[in-house]
Amino acid sequence: MTDDARWLDETEARAWLGYRRMFLLLNREVARDLAQECGLSEADYDVLSNLSGAPGDSIRLTKLAAHLKWSKSRLSHQLTRMQQRGLISREEHPSDARGAVIVLTEEGRRTIEEAAPNHVASVRRNFIDLLTPQQLAAFGDIAWSVVERLNEAAAPQKTS
């Protein structure tokens, strides 16, 4: 067995391990704040914020699953829990009876509007306000560069 791995040097390892530790700690803190202050899980917030930003406060299930990068099964289970709490409803798509549309209810709208200020305060406290404007700009450039490359790699290949 040959060792063809391109091992990380000290600078690369520091960047990668720092990112991993930051990702875990930051997600834990923001999720904890969201649960304590708003009674929502990260998954609840992700669904509600996507619906509240969609035209007509509604979106097709398949489109929401693709946007969240979740399986339809995972999203369906999440939506069932949220529907039981009155945050969302499921409706048939007007032009495609096979497709479901997820709609934000009045309770869901009230919930996301109450949660959003607390959520952004947590994001600021645990991330934004810890960085200089230059660091924040560089971080944004880095993050979106990686996102674009990964999205390109995941895009279905066109066949001729």
TrEMBL record:
The HTH marR-type domain, residue ranges: 1-148
Gene3D superfamilies linked to this entry: Winged helix-like DNA-binding domain superfamily/Winged helix DNA-binding domain (1.10.10.10)
Source superkingdom: Bacteria
Keywords: DNA-binding
Species for this entry: Nonomuraea endophytica
SMART domains: HTH_MARR (SM00347)
PANTHER family: MARR FAMILY REGULATORY PROTEIN, TRANSCRIPTIONAL REGULATOR, MARR FAMILY
A single GO BP: response to stress
Protein name according to UniProt: DNA-binding MarR family transcriptional regulator
Molecular-function GO terms, alphabetical: DNA binding; DNA-binding transcription factor activity
